[in-house]
Design goal:
GGT_bact; single chain; Serum Albumin, Chain A, Domain 1; 536 residues; alpha+beta; seven-stranded antiparallel β-sheet; 18 helices; leukotriene C4 gamma-glutamyl transferase activity; six-stranded antiparallel β-sheet
Length: 536
């Protein structure tokens, strides 16, 4: 490798990671510095109150695995705890709306966080830098402040009433810390360009840095503060949840697409649905289609619906349910789906009757060929912030199915199905693409489309992440605002429901690196505020 590259949705975080690379750190060191900063400068998307997974490839050490630090349901949770509170499922299938939004906002919404233990484990097992050194940029930005960016403010102010979930602005108001941090003295939400200072978070990060690891969060002083706060506010998480938290390491699942070997996250991650979509699309001559044409979109939509049906039927925590992803990834299964699409069969996605989601991503490759694709998140923010700690907890309980007996149903200590699909593509023995995205149910379709853009349409990495996208995770084709209106009209004539997004760049936010001839180039999805930096 002749250079190193890092790409993520937040400029401040990318800069922190790039500085680590310039100082001789490896891809894992850079990803962790970036991740800590993301928790400060995009605090509703990620942070130490969240969770995620890191796809790690280190050829010289013979390491290729997924470090899973997913959130776990409270040990006091029960499968039927909210059976009488169900209203409906979101149209994109990402979450479940309950009466009073009790699983979406407040202390009952929170699952046991895994991010800090994930960061510590990654540094210990793969990294080279000191713990305190990696946290310093995040502490500095929390203490001194940073400018509020466009995407952050858009997300804060976004009206989610159509989904039925609580609006983020109400979550920002939920705690005393939130009201102090995110609003002016007159109660008006801070605006783009305003300085956001979070001294409480700076002090918490300093405590974590001095402690030398994550024990303070799961067994020490922070654990006591967290447990006491949840008890006082009717939450389910207690000291036992924190003390018994465990992460895991697993091998990636593999697929292939037109001779490219693709490694990605196994269940409960959504790498396998992304691979299933690619395997279906491989049965079509995608490159001969006009990109964004009605026929291209029709085939994509029908393939995405079939992927979604399989995911909804089977996805869950493999420690609790059998997920037959080997069968779903077989070429025979893909061929059967493709045959139905070619025959003109229209399938239907069912939802429980009665978007854009809250995650971030990092892609990195260093000069030694070490690669990281890391997706971490709050799932959605809960609004809950322990007084004096500064960080917001995840709101992941709303992502469990409140109906017992389903693959994604609630169970004590269970990990909910994740939409993350951190992915590395290989040509022969060498990585050729490092890719992933935030965006909930839209991640797998968006990542697959960007891979097809590079492989089938021979796009550059920037063209691939910027090209118009669609999603088909319901019975409506969601199209971005750069799909031609004539194409929309043609699809409607064919009998399809079509929803046009007002966004120019929509449906997940893919951040990718493409490697050719030993040179890596990165691209940040224009939907968000990020950037790519290459280091010679």
């Amino acid at each position: 490798m002749r250079n190193a590259t890092i790409v993520a949705p937040q400029p401040e975080a990318v800069e922190a990671g790039a500085e680590i690379l310039e100082r001789g750190g490896n891809a894992i060191d850079a990803a962790l510095a970036c991740a800590f900063v993301q928790g400060v400068v995009d605090p509703q998307m990620a942070g130490i109150g969240g969770f995620g997974s890191m796809h790690v490839y280190m050829p010289k050490k013979g390491v290729h695995e997924i470090l899973e630090f997913y959130a776990r349901a409270p040990l006091k949770a029960a499968p039927d705890m909210w059976l009488d509170k169900i209203k409906h499922q979101s149209r994109d299938g990402f979450g479940y709306v309950l009466e009073g939004n009790i699983s979406d906002i407040g202390y009952l919404a929170v699952c046991t966080p895994g991010s800090l233990k994930g960061y510590e484990t990654a540094l210990r097992d793969y990294g080279t830098f000191e713990w305190t050194d990696l946290i310093k940029p995040a502490i500095r930005l929390a203490r001194n402040g940073f400018m509020i960016r466009n995407h952050m403010h858009w997300y804060w102010a976004k009206d989610q009433a159509n989904d039925g979930f609580a609006n983020t602005i109400d979550k920002l108001r939920f705690s005393a810390t939130g009201r102090k941090t995110y609003f002016d003295a007159d109660g008006v939400l801070k605006n783009v360009g305003d300085l956001l200072v979070n001294s409480d978070m700076a002090q918490t990060l300093e405590r974590i840095a001095r402690s030398g690891g994550s024990d303070i969060f799961y067994h020490g002083d922070l654990a006591e503060q967290i447990a006491d706060d949840f008890k006082a506010n009717g939450g389910l998480i207690d000291r036992e949840d924190l003390a018994r938290y465990e992460l895991s390491k697993v091998k990636p699942v593999w697929g292939d697409y037109r001779g490219n070997l693709i490694a990605t996250s196994p269940p409960p991650g959504s790498g396998f649905p992304m691979l299933e979509l690619l395997h279906i699309m491989e049965q079509f001559d995608v490159g001969s289609l006009q990109h964004g044409s009605a026929e291209h979109i029709r085939i994509l939509f029908e393939a995405m619906k079939r992927m979604t049906i399989d995911k909804d039927a089977h996805m869950g925590d493999p420690a609790y349910v059998d997920v037959p992803y080997e069968r779903l990834l077989s070429k025979e299964h893909a061929q059967a789906h493709a045959h139905a699409i070619k025959a003109g069969e229209v399938t239907s996605v069912s939802r429980l009757d009665g978007s854009q989601r809250d995650t971030t991503h990092i892609s990195v490759i260093d000069k030694d060929g070490n690669a990281v694709a890391m997706t971490h998140t709050l799932g959605s923010p809960s609004g809950a912030i322990t007084d004096g700690l500064g960080f917001m907890y995840n709101g992941t309980m709303s992502r469990f199915n409140p109906v017992p007996g389903k693959p994604g149903s609630i169970a004590p200590g269970k990990r909910r199905p994740s939409s993350a699909a951190p992915t590395i593509v290989f040509k022969g023995d060498e990585p050729s693409i490092v890719i992933g995205a935030p965006g909930g149910s839209y991640i797998a379709p968006a990542v697959a489309q960007c891979l097809m853009n590079m492989i089938d349409f021979d796009m550059s990495v920037l063209e691939a992440v910027s090209a118009p996208r669609i999603v088909g995770v319901s019975n409506t084709i969601d199209i971005c605002n750069r799909i031609r209106h004539s194409v929309e009209d043609e699809l409607r004539t064919q009998g399809y429901q079509v929803a046009r997004s007002p966004q120019t760049y929509a449906f997940a936010a893919v951040h990718a690196i493409k490697i050719e001839g030993g040179v890596s180039k990165g691209a940040a999805d224009p939907q968000r505020d990020g950037m790519a930096i290459s280091v010679a």
